[in-house]
Design brief:
Elements lengths: L14 H19 L17 E3 L2 E14 L2 E13 L2 H10 L3 E3 L8 E3 L5
Antiparallel strand pairs: 1-2, 2-3, 4-5
């Protein structure tokens, strides 16, 4: 964690149960520490859609592995997490600060480096 007031909680289960766990976490935090969750930033998401947390995109996908046990094959589902950087957001922030600029073509979404002499 980078900040003490931001956290990410992973839960494996149904969405209805995830909301129950969220309510329990919220109640426990408010009773024990007098902290309240910001409901604008608090949400429940499926791991395949991913979430943006402290500048990183965290998502996951199901990987099916075959497991052998005494001559029987069994499919086992595992969730692997992927961490990425939202590149478009970073490029836009660099453009706002003057390090990059949008391409001169009118309909282009590309970013190019700025010339130092300008």
């Amino acid at each position: 964690m980078r900040y003490a007031d931001d956290f990410l909680f992973g839960y494996i289960g149904r969405k209805v149960e995830a909301y129950k766990v969220l309510c329990e976490v919220s109640n426990t935090l408010s009773l024990m520490t007098d902290l309240n969750l910001n409901m604008d930033k608090t949400n429940v998401k499926h791991h395949e859609k991913g979430t943006l947390f402290l500048g990183y995109m965290i998502s996951g996908n199901y990987g099916l592995n075959l497991r052998w046990s005494k001559g029987n094959k069994q499919r086992v589902g595992m969730v692997t997490l992927k961490y990425g950087v939202p590149l478009l957001n970073l490029l836009e922030r660099f453009a706002e600060r003057g390090f990059l600029q949008r391409s001169a073509k009118t309909n282009s979404q590309r970013f190019v480096g700025r010339r130092q002499d300008k």
